[in-house]
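Every protein is a chain of amino acids, and every chain bends into a shape of its own. The protein below has been through that process, and both of its lines are reproduced in full.
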Amino acid sequence: MSAYTIYQELFPPQTVEQVETSHFTSPDAINLVVAKASLLQIYEFVEYIPNLDDGKESVMEEELTSRMNETDETIPFPKIRHNGREPMDASSGRLELVAQYKLSGTITTMGVVKTASARGKEGCDSLLVGFADAKMSLLEWSPSTNSIVTVSIHYYERDEFKKEFLTNPYPSNIHIDPQQRCAVLNFYDNKLAVLPFRQAEKLDERQGDLEEEEEQKWPYLPSFLIDLEKIDPRIKNVIDMTFLSDYYEPTLAILFQSEQTWTGRLGSVKDTVSVVVISLDLTAKIYPVIYSIDKLPYDCIRLVAMPKPVTGVLVIAANSLLHVSQGSPGVGVAVNGYVKKTTEFPGMIYEDNTINLGLSLDGAKALAFGGDRCLIFMQNGNWAVVQIKMDGSKVIGMDIAKIDHDGQASPSDIPPLATIPSCVTNVKNGEYFFLGSRVGDSLLIKWKYSKELSGKSPLHDTDFTFRVCDTLLNTGPIVDMTIGDVEKEEETAVLPDLELVSCSGHGANGALCVFQRHIHPHTSFSFRQLDSQAVWSIKCRKDPNIEADNVFDEAFDKLLFISKSKSTMVFSAGDELQELVKTGFYTRGSTIAVCTLFDSTRIVQVYSTGVMVLTPQGKRIQTVPIRGSKIVDASIRDPYILLTLDSKKILLFQGDTTTKDIIHLQLPSNIRETAISMASIFADTSGLFSSVSERHALAAAAKAQSKHKKRKGSYDINNHQHSNKKANYSTDDKIMNEFDDVDMDLYGDQHEEENQLKEGVVMENVIDTNQGEDEDEMLYREDPVIKNVEEVVDEANVSLQGNTINELTRVSFWCIIYTTDGTLQIYTLPDLKEYFVCPRFDIAPDLITDNQGYQPSKDKNNSSKIIREILMTNIGRERKDPHLVARTETNDIIIYKAFSFVPSDESGSGDRLALRFSRVHHEYVSRKSTEENRSSKKDVVDEFEIPGIELDDDDEDEIAKKLTKKEKYKRKLLIPFTDVAGFAGVFVAGAQPAWLMCSCKSFVRVHPMKTEHEVIGFTQFHNVNCKHGFITIDSKSTIRLSGLQTNGVIYDLDWVIQKVPLNKTVHKIQYHPVMRVYAVLVSSPTNIRLRNDDNQYIDGIEGEEGEERKPGEFLPAVDKFSMIMVSPVTWEIVDTVEFDEFEQCFSLQCAALESKQTSTGRKHFMVVGTGFLRGEDTTMRGSIRIFDIIEVVPEPNNPQTNHRFKHIHTEDVKGAVTAMCNVSGHLASCIGSKVIIWNLEDDETLVGVAFIDVQIYVTSMSSIKNFILLGDAQKSIWFLGFQLEPAKLSLLGKDYQSFEVGCVDFIIDDKSLYLVVGDTNENIDLYQYAPFNLQSFGGQKLMRRGDFHVGSQVQTMVRLPQIERTDSGLGYSRRHFCLCGTFSGSISVISPISEKTFKRLNTLYGQLVNNVQHIAGLNPRAYRLIKGPKQRMASNRTKAVLDGDLIFEFAGLSLDEQNETTKQIGTTVSRIMEDLVDIESSIDHF
């Protein structure tokens, strides 16, 4: 019987493994390329001036100060002080995500190189990425498609190199020559692949045309291999290598250990490490050894090439630091007291002050800076700074100062703590660096060396100041997970809402991560209002001159409009909602749109037969009736109003600022003749929407300016993706202080829908026209004279200040039109010139480009019904970018992001928009069922189609009602918002509502929201009772006032996440389902000095009893454990149980044991399995401790403290209790190499009832009914059966291959049971107990049914039932799937599917592997093949696990590609989409 399952990564990896700084996307951009296991992310580093609290003037002064520093280099930086602030605080930096890619391979190493290709000549870098074993890809950025292109792939995994490497313990490493002449890949220990790059600067060679063509095509020469043993026979066991600068040829220093040793062998063999420096002559292929030095300490781990004036190479060893250079015998400095015992290196300096530091440099990372200094980041999170002492050009020693991050940072700052650093890079020399961590959040740190170089004085840690500017969240490594209930106000749903809680991090970075797929808003108030259909909130004021704009931004919404099918209600939104009667507002029918004009001083109400302009008090000023056809849609952006009629035509009005009324604008004939299905207005504040000629003018201006003033790169016109957002300028904005220190106005982005520009600061500081009227004209370019001035300023040789202001206040208005034949057009307002046109937008292409001169066909019948709704809006938080969002007939959401692209050819494209749109891929597939689709397909046949029908519930009667009405009003499901909890984005209404939102560190994310009934109306709402919240209306006419959870909830990632720092290593977590609390095992290291049974120290130091160790000889650390109780409401620690010294907790289980206290006969207890770790001389003993969780009277003012642990029983056992589970009301535990089943008698004692002997060390166990599955650290898995009467435990079957198991669980497919194993080689294996299979010898041998390579070690699994739709609603099915948590912080699912679906998706998979472009030329099939030495023998050839990551990419293909792919395998797109929806919705618990 075959297994049919699908594997899918639900949450991407988060542990930063590699990082490189480069100019990757454009010559001016500083990009950080970050590798997280199989995820490649490209960030841009942006420097900005944060909003200060002390008023507007200081911002300007700080700004000018920093400008002065940039231009005039004679002023020393630290001497200018302003407002008592350190200049260090003047500017800050942040990372903004540019692109991210899921790769079919784990990135093992990266390097940045500038090649002689066309991109390299522009000044951009290329990226070399290395993958497991020996693969290398060269990648470049393509500005025309806004994505990565693969230039070349290099593959060296040939069999003749492998020799003894059946498994490869040596990770491959890329090293790049600092002068960009070549790159080397070190693989299989001592093999070296050299990739030489073509050099552009060779003057002596006359290059022929042919060679130049070659050079354009291939920026590199053919690569070749060097076997290091041929150069020097001693070179094996290579530890590290690095290129040295300042040599004529590329020069490589290699650190290796020709004879291996370890601490226990130091008596016979020590000082086994050597450094050899070789020169690589790439043309003649000769590699002379320049110098070598032997007899270095055995624990050397890293090489750091030192820049001038020091040169040479710094060798980091676990206990010492050494410096090696040509002509020097080598100098070393001992940093702890163990060096004398471990090495006899002659150049070692033993100084008491460095020895007493007691540093342990094992696993440290280093960053050289400033010529003679080096920062070292240690495993425990502390740093050390090394200053090299020189005598002339000779190194004579080192000064070392330790930097602790305990309490020195001010409480407001995050301490720069990242334990177990994985990588470090300079971001901006001398100012910022980035520190990546495997277990904690990665940090962008601004630092400053405050002491002037006065010469001889020693280093102090106070000479340095550090500040964390930005962090990248890390959820890894996940060592344990559990599932808990979400705290809800009202319990309504059929199925409980669950959340996934994981143990992540290590040491001081330990934390709990709470994962939720859906947004759970916090509802403050709800009421019923029959027949409600849409809702708007309005913020208005009497006179713009009275209050400044930034005050108005914080003002509450004044009015609330609720539209019904035959009337409209208007409420004033004060402390409570009160209906307004006898006002001039239109209430006799339903409303289509409400908005404000003239700086929020007038309200516009659009209904199906006209437009009304009113004062905020509701006094009518002007009514414009529309004759002939009805209005179906309206788009209002101060000062324009755009109406769409049911006759497929549009009308445009403009507000006149002097007379305060609206006038009708004439449309050009080409627009009047087009049949328009949708139209809207977009106000661009980012400066991205500008024409090609404007771009060229700006580039020229910038060039002239940079010639005029030679300035450094930081405040340079940092072309943000070549766009002109240069406003490094900040305005006072209270909202942002409330939500985020990062300033929203950095790019001149506006903060509210009506584009109220923040004239407040800008105008006061610079422009004197502070009268309302002129100001408006200035802003909206109404007056031709002023418009002219602005253009002149724009394109001339702009001064910096003028330019900045200009950028800030410029708003351009654009009209987006989507015609019935599927063409997308963008026109300027008010003169309606065509600037952008894209035919066939309805196939949802990957890239939307401008097709100039496109003529629409005159054929009337090619009407496209695929796209139902289009919206152009700003989405973001710190920085808002223009996005184009479309909704298809199947309710799928397609998102595009605008990026700037200036075409290279000049052919008459001056007045076209210099931008394109690239598609943002997301994992969300709409759940719209096919019956509805079929009903709407019938309508397409008629000419007249009733809008709104395909959006409704499945309620037949409602559809019937709609049909009778023939309602023509278009239901809008894409509703933009500008401030809900600080986010601007889009809300998608409907049966399955979703939020589109992002911050600068993420793409637009689609977060679904759970609701009982379909949501039909939405608006943002800011009120006393509901600050920065929103209002929804559902199909049962319930109106809810809600808010997004903001305290610690992060919406940037694929799931909604909360991170709860515990500052201790977190080991295990369990949820108590009755008391609804979590029990967590945590530990923190304590220094231990072991004693033997006679109470004497066993570390062999003679002398008196009380004698201490020598300083610098630090003690070993052993974890001290405790169990804490965490409340899921506030995530605070409620109760703690401490364990004894040396007592290690190995397992935690919430076991339902037999008990007489409850009616069911079972009761949940928390059971902890421990063992005493006292070195290898003492026999291991352990204990099983049972705790009950009881309710107590909470402490005053803290209702969460109403639970406590109550200790029931401790059972001492002979051996460590390594794993536990509960089976039929009994407790199964592994004690040493035995499995014992216990029964809890009289709720107080444990009695053993059955046992069996197993093999070496059980790492995990899991049970189902009365079957138990064990995973062993060496001997694969065992499958046991437990019989109650008489009690007996028997071995049913086991796997006879031996490999290391990380965790085990079950998958159930109706009547079949599969055993799932996560092994330590990053695979998942499926087994089955099949006693009737001949090969299984009557079931003794477990049959292997499938295997799959995950790419990161699976350490914990959770089993859940699938959700299925039944006639009575949602319910749990007879299939169970597993959620897997990995060391890289990713969460994935392995879920059973039906055989039909499996076979269909398997053929689709074959098509996708061949037809989709894979980044870096990787092969997804090869990546998913099982890896590891022992597995290869056991592997089975049947395909039982599908790669869902690739299959779900199908949903992101353009519609053409989808049709093409499904045609080749003989199925339909809707069939495949249904399969994807079934898979998605069956695991949608969170």
User: Anything to note?
Assistant: The two ends are 32 Å apart (CA to CA). The chain has a mean pLDDT of 80. The longest strand covers residues 1369-1382. The longest helix spans residues 692-708.
